[in-house]
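User: Hey, quick favor. My workstation is busy. Could you predict this chain's structure for me?
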Amino acid sequence: MAHLGYFRRELVERRGWCSEQELGELIALAQSLPGPASSQVGFALGILRAGWLGGLAAWVGFTLPSALLMLGFAMMHGRLAGAMGVALLHGLQIVAVAVVAQAVVAMQRSLAPDRVRVGMAVLAASVVLLVPGQFVTLAVIGGGALAGLGIWRRVELADGVGVSLPLLKGAGVGLAGAFLGLLVLLPVVAGRAGWLTVFAAFYRSGALVFGGGHVVLPLLEGTVVVPGWVSQESFLAGYGAAQALPGPLFSFAAYLGAVIRLPLGVEVSPYVSGLVALLGVSAPGLLLMAAVMPFWGALRRNGLVQAALRGVNAVVVGILIAALYSPLWTSTIVKTRDFWLALAGFAMLTVGRLPPWVVVAGVAGATVLMAVFGL
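Assistant: No problem, here it is.
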């Protein structure tokens, strides 16, 4: 969820490529579909800016850094150790807490500005945190839409320009068909082709992910560990790196593809299989996002949809609040000094208005120095 905070800072505040409302709607749309929400939002923002090629460029730019890091980790993860390395990675996690906290404050001001919507956000956060299950986020968004219809459908709403999408509805229908066709046909045609087998296995996992990127982990474990393609030890090592390294969690697939060993008698380069696995797990979410987007603008301009979106935007703030607490806060703020470092990072972002890279360097550097001096 920290990625959404970076998107807001870079694309809404700094560059003005979209409005706060458009970003909130794209977040809600991505949360309602299978796939990695941050990657889908980045892909959609790229489409808004520069069409299909813009969406592809945005996805590559967002995913490539972490994918390269995970491929590098696959090649040398057994050699990485030491207190300084652990401290550096923990510092990056503390920065993520500060970034999400900044996003919650900023988005509350625009998407939940009154008591009713603040109350909806708090209720949404409570439900997400207290009710287990993969589909709770989707249910909360649906509940927000229904609440919005009940509260604001009789209120005169301003005409909204909606999300201006350079896409045809026919393309959306075609992409939805491609999503379903690949899901059904890939296992049939994979056969003994090593790279196609990898793509089919990871595509199936990516198509079944609801509720955020972490849900893909048990699916991937069943895909690569159960059949013996990847050992449990290697799987857990890659999971730890994916948790700590920057970038979308789905980049974990690049690592798994690189260390996979298929019992098919077909040799596949680890770099090729890593790329194929990453494309396979990402493709379903991107196809679905692009399939729905052509219809979103017309729906967005409908009065009832606007009322529903008021409720949806409010609960999106609550979802961000829940993400800030779990897993970010609960897994990162384990000592008093972690709290003060996160608070310092938050102050640098909100009061000092420093660039995120400065905050990353400051907080991560502080954790490394503490490790050096044994603090």
